[in-house]
Write a structure and sequence with these properties.
Distance between the termini: 36 Å
Number of helices: 2
Order of helices and strands: HEEEEEEEEHEEE
Largest sheet: 6 strands, antiparallel
Strand content: 35-45%
Structural class: alpha+beta
Oligomer: single chain
Number of strands: 11
């Protein structure tokens, strides 16, 4: 086999892999349960990753006394957070599990911190969970606009997320002042 043919085969395999990854991501976003989550933000830039808004989900820090289904939660545990819709269209945390529940959407996350709050007689456990949704990438103009919206307390940005059957949530877009803006993959 000639050198040119080997290079063409390698290029074809690499292209097929990229097409597979794009198709897989598109199918996971389209096939999952769509939920809307409240976010807060802060503003970094990275010269290698491009423009993005750093966001923090309101469900990233959870007081365990407010949740059902909790077990002994430790740092580096993989957990599933069950969500239920609120009256305002924002989904909220309802239960925390070590195993994926059979009903309702549940986001998979990694416990990054477990600590106690309160006085000695009223101490309660709090967990911090990373869902892998802490950066919203956008072009420069959109990222700068989103950063100013995230700093403005009178605005209400929300993250639109798709939760496929495996629980690994994907960002679909952002909702600003009740108007959804979906990401285009290409």
């Amino acid at each position: 086999m000639s050198h040119t043919n080997r290079l063409l085969i390698i290029a074809a395999v690499m292209t097929a892999f990229l097409v597979f990854m794009l198709g897989s991501n598109t199918a996971r976003r389209a096939g999952g349960q769509e939920v809307v989550l409240d976010v807060t933000g802060y503003d970094p830039r990275d010269p290698f990753l491009g423009h993005y808004s750093r966001i923090r989900l309101d469900i990233a820090i959870l007081d365990l006394r407010d949740l059902a289904g909790k077990d002994d939660i430790e740092v580096e545990d993989l957990v599933y957070l069950s969500l239920e819709p609120g009256e305002d269209g924002v989904w909220t945390a309802s239960a925390l599990h070590h195993e994926q529940p059979e009903t309702g959407p549940a986001m998979l996350g990694l416990v990054t911190s477990v600590y106690f709050r309160g006085q000695a007689d009223e101490r309660h456990e709090v967990v911090q969970i990373d869902y892998g949704l802490n950066r919203y990438f956008a072009d420069r103009a959109t990222a700068l606009e989103l950063d100013s919206i995230l700093r403005d307390d009178s605005r209400s940005p929300r993250l639109i997320v798709s939760i496929p059957s495996d629980g690994r949530a994907l960002i679909k877009g952002i909702e600003i002042d009740g108007e959804p803006q979906y990401e285009r993959l290409w």
